[in-house]
Amino acid sequence: MHKLVVLYPKPADPDHFRDYYVTNHLPLVMKMPGLLAWRYSFDVAAAEGEAPYFAVFEADFADAAAMAASRESPQGQRAAADVANYATGGVVVIHYPVQDGTG
Q1: Tell me, what CATH number does 40's domain have?
Q2: What is the DSSP letter of 40?
Q3: Exposed, middle or buried by CB within 10 Å (0-12, 13-18, 19+), for 102?
Q4: What's the structural domain count of the chain?
Q5: Which helix or strand (DSSP H or E) is residue 27 part of?
Q6: Cα–Cα distance between 8 and 38 in angstroms, integer?
């Protein structure tokens, strides 16, 4: 599995961010091809001190190629272009292959 993580620093208007994200942005994300699962939170906390991020989004893809194809698709391009409409604090996008562990 390959994971895409989007980290959002605090926006200028948190209420607008929340409303726009749920009402407009997530419906675009859900149309991205190859998306296996997704999750998000506005309740980001740090173990110590103040969290550097306001919100986080995670998406699962079968592999890096599936993620790249999804991001390059028309649906992925629309979702990426939409970020400027709510993320006034910027955005950090990271991705990585997931290593399963057993305890």
Answers
A1: 3.30.70.100
A2: E
A3: exposed
A4: 1
A5: helix 26-29
A6: 16
